[in-house]
Amino acid sequence: MNISKSDKQLIALNSLSLGQKALIVAFSFDVDGTERVQKMGLFPGERLEIMRLPSQGGAVEIRIRGYFVSLRKEEAERIMVKLLVD
Predict the structure, then answer these.
(1) Which of 15, 16, 71, 85 is at 20 to 30 A from 4, Cα to Cα?
(2) Residue 12 contacts residue 78 (beta carbons within 8 Å)
């Protein structure tokens, strides 16, 4: 997978569509929020895939390193990613 040449800007994780893959680049949390997502296994440089999107305030589900993680909408808004293409 390569980073899309047509989309070099960072986007928030919550703006991805079902099935899209991305590379985590940065977080915009305070220290506690950053520690929380890192305890879930999310770190800059990790690849992920959107597995489920929220319905009426639900969680965004991603697959990262072979396991599934559910993120609140507020958390997904603060995880900045680069879109990957196959």
Answers:
(1) 71
(2) yes
